[in-house]
Amino acid sequence: MTICLSRQSFILATFALLLSSAYGIRVLPRTSTDSANLYSEYIEAPTYVNGNQCRNPVKGSSFSMCDPSIVHVAMTLDSKYLRGSIASVHSILKHAACPETIYFHFITSVSASSDLGEVVRSTFPSLSFKIYPFKNEGRVKQLISSSIRPALEEPLNYARIYLADILDSCVSRVVYVDSDTIVVDDIWKLWSTSLTDSRVIGAPEYCHANFTSYFNKEFWADSVLSRVFEGKKPCYFNTGVMVMDLGRWRGGDYTKRMEGWMEIQKQRRIYELGSLPPFMLVFGGEIQGIDHRWNQHGLGGDNVVNSCRSLHPGRVSLLHWSGKGKPWARLDEGRPCPVDHLWAPYDLHRLHRF
Question: Which residues, if any, are the signal sequence (predicted)?
């Protein structure tokens, strides 16, 4: 279920979509959880079940994430963006035709893994998921260089580089999404994207963007370094939404390749933006292009404080508040951007729901 929008009607049409149930899903009555812990501010989500057209996976002790019918989704969890992560999971379940066939993989800091896991479990009691403490955190801290925004220097921001090592070996494909995203379409459509010609990653590409601006003059002046793009036509892509073939990633040892560029950055400083440039250096020009409707990014203002963005006209399947501004913060402050009201229906925070 996607949206086709003109500039005049996109908000009205999108609200109609958000208020409707996804096809084939029966929504059971909402109940609240009264667990007396730090995270009791989240209410229990509705229970979403498979429609008649779905293959029902075996639940309970016999359930296996290695079941080939499972759709795998990965994201990071931390206390700062927890509210966004909860809303994102909620949106994925709401619009999935077969929500019980989705398995979530949450990467957390080692110290917070237990508490955050309890939040997810109490908010989504029937959710299939696994918590992975990010054990590469120490190594990543040694490789991280300063960025234009402190949030981009957090070790968890680099966890997507290590998914092939973190997730179980039987997981050969995963959809990675950032915590500041909302999905308004069936995630299976994104998951099933064909990655042709041995492509490792699929993502929307933006070839109108100035690709050279993502690296500094020292990089482009060094013929050895800049040769990495020789014979390619690299385009900018946002790493907040990716389809990843983990089998091919493991076979190509891409984690080591990216760490190699991070080590060069530490020594010579060839870019300014966190974990994005290593992805562009390794995969630029070799991305499987996906329809732009799967990442309407920049809704957070693209690093400009209090700047509101509009959706691009056309179909919308995923909204992404990349940038400084987050919808929950702007709503709480009473200064929301118009697009923030599209995030609000998925908010499960007990005290600040709109």
Answer: 1-24
How far is Cα 83 from Cα 301, in angstroms, rounded to an integer?
A: 19
Which among 102, 278, 275, 126 has a CA at the least distance from the CA of 190?
A: 102
Residue pair 303/276 in contact by the 8 Å Cβ criterion: no
Per-residue DSSP letter, 105: E
Tokens for 287, please give them: 């991305």
pLDDT, tens only, 162-211: 999 999 999 999 999 999 999 999 999 999 999 999 999 999 999 988 88
Kindly report the pTM of this predicted structure: 0.87
Beta-carbon contacts of residue 192 (< 8 Å; ≥ 6 apart): none
Neighbour count for residue 334 (Cβ, 10 Å): 6
Taken in order 137, 140, 146, 151, is the CA torsion positive or negative?
A: negative
pLDDT tens across 93-146, in order? 999 999 999 999 999 988 888 889 999 999 999 999 999 999 988 889 888 876
Tokens of 234: 């690299």
User: For the packed helices 254-268 and 276-283, what is the interaxial angle rounded to 10 degrees?
Assistant: 120
Q: How far apart are CA 124 and CA 102, in angstroms?
A: 13
pLDDT 10s digits, 224-246: 999 999 999 999 999 999 999 99
Cα(350)–Cα(102) distance, integer angstroms: 25
List phi, psi (to 5°) of 13. -65, -40
Q: How far apart are CA 253 and CA 282, in angstroms?
A: 11
- What values do phi and psi take at 162, rounded to 5? -105, 10
Write phi, then psi, for 133 (nearest 5 degrees).
Answer: -60, 135
Question: Within a 10 A sphere around the Cβ of 231, how many other Cβ atoms?
Answer: 6
Q: For residue 295, what is the DSSP state?
A: -
Question: Amino acid letter at 41?
Answer: E
- For residues 41 and 349, the answer to whether their CB atoms sit within 8 Å is yes
Q: Which two tokens stand for residue 143?
A: 């490789």
